[in-house]
Amino acid sequence: MSSKSSSQFSTFKDCLARRLISTTDLDGPEGSDDPLDEFTSYLASEVWPALPDTLYTASYESLSSDTVLQEMASDPFYISLDAIPIPTSFFDTLTSYTHFEDAHDCIRFLRKVLSDYLTEATAPPPVWKQTRGEKCEICERGWVRLTYHHLIPRSVHGKVLKRKWHTESMLNSVAWLCRPCHSAVHHVASNEDLARYFYTVDLLLERDDIQAWKKYASKQK
Length: 221
Ligand SMILES: [Zn+2]
Ligand SMILES: [Zn+2]
Prior knowledge:
By secondary structure, this protein is mainly α. The protein has helices spanning 3-21, 35-47, 53-56, 60-65, 67-74, 88-97, 103-121, 157-162, 179-188, 191-197, 201-205, 208-218, and strands at 146-150, 174-178.
């Protein structure tokens, strides 16, 4: 998959997962560690390549210039799913592991997911200054002075846009970190890697070294 659409794909996958957990009797394939994750990843990667191109680049910026996207965002029925070659594996899998009875149920479900996806993908960016909480977002200490870390470091903004790693509205996303945690973040990865792979606090916290640091830092006075 091209990097152009990878963040949109993960948004789509999350929307799918959220709709799946609200369907009543999801079994998931047997013997899997994390049925929701495996099931969602499989379904999302089956159906995503079949969707209209406009969906892959859906963003707050493209909404203002793309009239097809505007139609889709205001009316999920605008996407004519009958004309799309949705793989039969998508229907087969959904009907085996949920109470969905037929392709109609699956299509109805997919429409809801796409509607959630369009709302999320085209939402205006948050005003980052207002995301400041009381605590450092890594060590969770509340009595320390907070600094803001550009999750996509400014020195690589040009490259980020050229390579389409993120949309322009993402560039000013910040995390509020205490000074020691802020330094730790810059210590574990280069600006380019931060921008490409660790552009949210959650992604940073998936790293073992940041977890080890967090454990240490949270105990410091
Ligand atoms: Zn901290
Ligand atoms: Zn920083």
